[in-house]
Design goal:
Elements: E1 6-11, E2 16-20, E3 25-28, H1 40-45, E4 56-64, E5 76-80, E6 83-91, E7 94-102, H2 114-121
């Protein structure tokens, strides 16, 4: 149901009943929890508390890249002081990439200039990163 906020669910032997904060309900056979980092559904199922900061930030993306130094079908990871950069070819010139950097919790990321920010973090890594 669009424009509703998940509140909880109840299960019986046949169906799931989903409850929303506005009092609405719905029934379904399958319920997929895609309600974000502070998932209300996860709390109901696992109840493991708030997320714990692991000490690093992560950026991810998909790109079309045609470069001779990215072998088709071979993933790679470049590591440096407090940072990692990984590439996974996904076919037809496409790659999935990720970058991690050790950063203090809550450090704001610039909305404008994000690419330059990442390039500055990885400026001393292999040329494959840039």
């Amino acid at each position: 149901i669009l424009n509703h906020t998940f509140d909880g669910f109840a299960a019986n032997s046949q169906r799931l009943r989903v409850h929303f904060t506005n009092g609405a309900m719905d029934e379904c056979d399958v319920l997929i929890g895609a309600d974000g980092l502070r998932s209300q559904m996860r709390q109901q199922i696992i109840g493991d508390g708030a997320p714990r900061y692991a000490g690093y930030a992560v950026w991810r993306g998909l790109a079309e890249v045609q470069r001779d130094d990215i072998p088709q079908g071979q993933p790679s990871e470049t590591m440096g002081a407090g940072a990692r950069f990984g590439i996974f070819p996904i076919g037809k010139g496409g790659i999935y990439w990720y970058a991690t950097a050790n950063l203090p919790e809550g450090q704001p990321e610039p909305f404008v200039g994000r690419k330059q920010h990442l390039l500055s973090i990885f400026q001393n890594h292999a040329s494959l990163v840039t």
